[in-house]
Amino acid sequence: MPRARVARTPQRRLLAWYEDEARDLPWRKSTDPYAILVSEVMLQQTRVETVIPYYERFLRAYPTVEALARAPIDDVLKLWEGLGYYRRAHNLHRASREVVHHHAGRIPADRAALRALPGIGPYTAAAVASIAFGEDEPVLDGNVVRVLARWFRVSGDPRRSDTRRSLEAVARSLIPAGRAGAFNQALMDLGARVCAPRLPRCEACPVEAVCEAHQAGEEELFPMRAARRSVPHRDVVAGVIWERGHDPWDPDARVLIAQREAGDMLGGLWEFPGGTVEQGESFDEALRRELREELGMEVEVGSLFITVDHAYTHFRMTLHVFHCRHTAGRPRALGCADFSWVLPSEIAGYALSVADRAVVRALCAQRESA
DNA sequence: GAACCGTGGAT
DNA sequence: TATCCAAGGTT
Predict the structure, then answer these.
(1) Are residues A250 and A326 in the same domain?
(2) In terms of C-beta distances under 8 Å and separation of at least 24 residues, what long-range contacts does A212-217 make, across chains too?
(3) Within 7 Å: CB of A156 and strand B?
(4) pLDDT at site A3
(5) What's the structural domain count of chain A?
(6) Does A197 share its domain with A262?
(7) Can you tell me the distance from the alpha carbon of A55 to that of A35, in angstroms, rounded to the nearest whole number?
(8) HEC assignment per residue over A123-157
(9) Enclosing domain of residue A160
(10) Chain B positions under 7 Å from a protein CB?
(11) Listed residue (A152, A177, A182, A183) closest to A166, CA to CA
């Protein structure tokens, strides 16, 4: 009786596992380097389940690199709304134009040329080179770091460059010739579905028998990470500024929204204008100061409309939103990229952050019930 | 090297 | 509620 076929090396067992268990993801249906690039940029620091609907909408709107290069950045940002790390959208848009203008519309095929495009770092360059072009380049994302740190008991904080160099050398040495695309994705799927940060399912792991951390019973001790610092809190104020001569209950009343500068946090997104409350400042003073600085206008701050708590990567925020009456000064874009008077119902067409989107929702709900 | 850059799900 | 952290990159 023939023995069950067992792959000889751990790498072959991992590839065999991947053939059976690979997740059915939309970008895996495509071999188009552009589609794969879009998926990899969206997946930066972002969960697969979050990315899927964004990826499908994006590819429908911009099926080719030429289509993306032709698009206005405001449209690209609207499609990116809610996905976070908005600089990725600016950079991907810029990259598409570089590809069209300097690479004859073809995504570069080698790691170094990919790396030169804006928003493409070491991970994304290696991912596109291996998955879209079959280059034998190793990737090092959060999943691969965790899998390899456990498999080979690699100590040291993986954020350190020397630790990363060791991990990359290990990853490179493991790649079966000509199979980097599948092998890299197998490592990432293994990290996402089996070799989880907590409570890894080692009994389901194709490399359990050779995993050094598992043999030592120390899976959860790897990778070694330093503790994080606590994040500060900020009070931020913003105004719903009603057009002069109108009141909130007027169905034709417009409000002022401003566009953030492209290089800033949430760059290119629209918002109810305002800013951070400084030490010793009242909310009223802070809001009037910000509107004077950003838009050159004077307002009378009215009642508190809503507060929104929101956690960003490096600080937490309480956003205090006040109704405001415009009293003097025609608005000018002094500290913002642009501004616009709009009906609350029209704001749906603009790209806003999640926090400001909550304000719009409350505003529209209030007018609905009024 | 370290700070900065969004959001949502899991625990 | 607080913390972690996810197919990272730029400055």
Answers:
(1) yes
(2) A212/A150, A212/A151, A212/A152, A212/A153, A213/A149, A213/A150, A213/A151, A213/A153, A214/A150, A216/A153
(3) no
(4) 47
(5) 2
(6) no
(7) 9
(8) HHHHHHHHHHHCCCCCCCCHHHHHHHHHHCCCCCC
(9) 10-221
(10) 1, 3-9, 11
(11) A152
Tokens describing residue A236: 């931020």
- Contact indicator for A48, A193 with CB cutoff of 8 Å: no
The reported pLDDT for the residue numbered A7 is 61
The Cβ of residue A151 has, within 10 Å, a number of other Cβ atoms equal to 24
Tally Cβ neighbours within 10 Å of residue A277. Answer: 20
A85 touches strand C (CB under 7 A): yes
Which has the closest alpha carbon to A131: A11, A63, A30?
Answer: A30
Domain with residue A18: its CATH number is: 1.10.340.30
> φ, ψ for residue A325 (rounded to 5)?
-110, 130
Residue A127 CB lies within 7 Å of the nucleic strand C: yes
Which portions of chain A are predicted below pLDDT 70? 1-7, 370
| Residue A312 Cβ under 7 A from any strand B atom | yes
Q: Measured from the CB, is A130 under 7 Å from any atom of strand C?
A: no
What's the CA gap between A126 and A123, in Å, rounded? 5
In this predicted structure, what is the pLDDT of residue A370? 65
Q: How far is the CA of A353 from the C1' of C3 (A)?
A: 23
A129, A137 Cβ separation under 8 angstroms: yes
A175-225 pLDDT, tens digit each: 999 999 999 999 999 999 999 999 999 999 999 999 999 999 999 999 998
Q: Is A158 helix (H, G, I), strand (E, B) or coil?
A: coil
Closest CA to A269 of A279, A283, A257: A257
A368 part of the active site: no
In this prediction, residue A1 carries a pLDDT of: 43
Tell me, what amino acid is at A62? Y
Q: Which nucleotide is nearest to A42 (CA to C1')?
A: C7
Interatomic separation, CA of residue A288 and C1' of nucleotide B5, rounded (Å): 27
Q: Where are the alpha helices (DSSP H) in chain A?
A: 10-21, 33-42, 48-61, 65-70, 73-80, 87-102, 111-115, 122-133, 142-151, 161-174, 180-193, 212-215, 283-295, 354-369
* Domain-terminating residue out of A176, A201, A221: A221
Q: How far is the CA of A43 from the C1' of C8 (A)?
A: 9
